[in-house]
């Protein structure tokens, strides 16, 4: 184990990486703006799986989406989410401007709940900003767990919601 407190930081390289020297060698920390490569993701996933399995926990990680198409096949709504452990995490809920205020967002959330109720998943979690209509989620039966206030930009205040299945 490398002690973080004894790291020595050096200036950034041209590739925006930082080299640090530890008691037992040098490491390089680099910032990557895109998703991990398949090979790097495989290493990370295998490491997570091994750690959780060693502690008797099953990850159950799976990304998925619910898509809403009109009668011409055009995408007019989407709910992107993932499962982890015994929970569902909503990453994004979007309804096209022309399709809003017709109950489609509520239907996407209802379909999500229908897909997972009684399947061993305990709750659905989501986070929204103040400008993204947090009252909508309350009307859909989600409960506020906590609010993280953004004093610099109140429109970016985050509300964390949960709905138990």
Question: What is shown here, in short?
Answer:
The protein has two domains: 4-54, no CATH class; 62-164, 3-Layer(aba) Sandwich (Aminopeptidase). It is 22% helix and 37% strand.
Entry keywords:
165 residues, alpha+beta, Aminopeptidase, 2 domains, 9 strands
- What structural class do the secondary elements suggest? alpha+beta
Question: What is the CA-based Rg, rounded?
Answer: 21 Å
CATH homologous superfamily placement of the largest domain: Gcn5-related N-acetyltransferase (GNAT)
Order of helices and strands: EEEHEEEHEHEE
Q: Globular, elongated, flat, extended or rod-shaped: what is the shape?
A: globular
* Proportion of residues in extended strands: 35-45%
Count every helix, treating DSSP H or I runs of 4 or more residues as helices.
3
Estimate percent helicity.
Answer: 10-25%
Mind telling me the CATH class of the largest domain? Alpha Beta
How widely separated are the two ends?
A: 40 Å
């Amino acid at each position: 184990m490398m002690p973080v407190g004894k790291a020595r930081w050096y200036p950034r390289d041209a590739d925006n990486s930082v080299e640090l020297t530890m008691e037992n060698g040098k490491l390089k920390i680099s910032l990557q703006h895109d998703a991990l490569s398949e090979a790097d993701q495989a290493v990370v996933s295998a490491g997570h799986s091994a750690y959780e399995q060693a502690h008797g926990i099953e990850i159950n990680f799976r990304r998925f989406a619910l898509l809403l198409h009109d009668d011409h096949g055009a995408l007019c709504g989407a709910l992107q989410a993932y499962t982890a452990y015994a929970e569902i995490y909503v990453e994004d809920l979007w309804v096209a401007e022309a399709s809003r205020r017709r109950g489609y967002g509520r239907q996407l959330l209802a379909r999500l709940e229908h897909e997972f109720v009684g399947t061993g998943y305990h709750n659905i979690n989501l986070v929204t900003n103040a400008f993204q209509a947090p009252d909508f989620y309350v009307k859909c039966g989600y409960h506020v767990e906590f609010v993280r206030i953004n004093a610099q930009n109140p429109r970016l205040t985050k509300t964390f919601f949960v709905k138990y299945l």
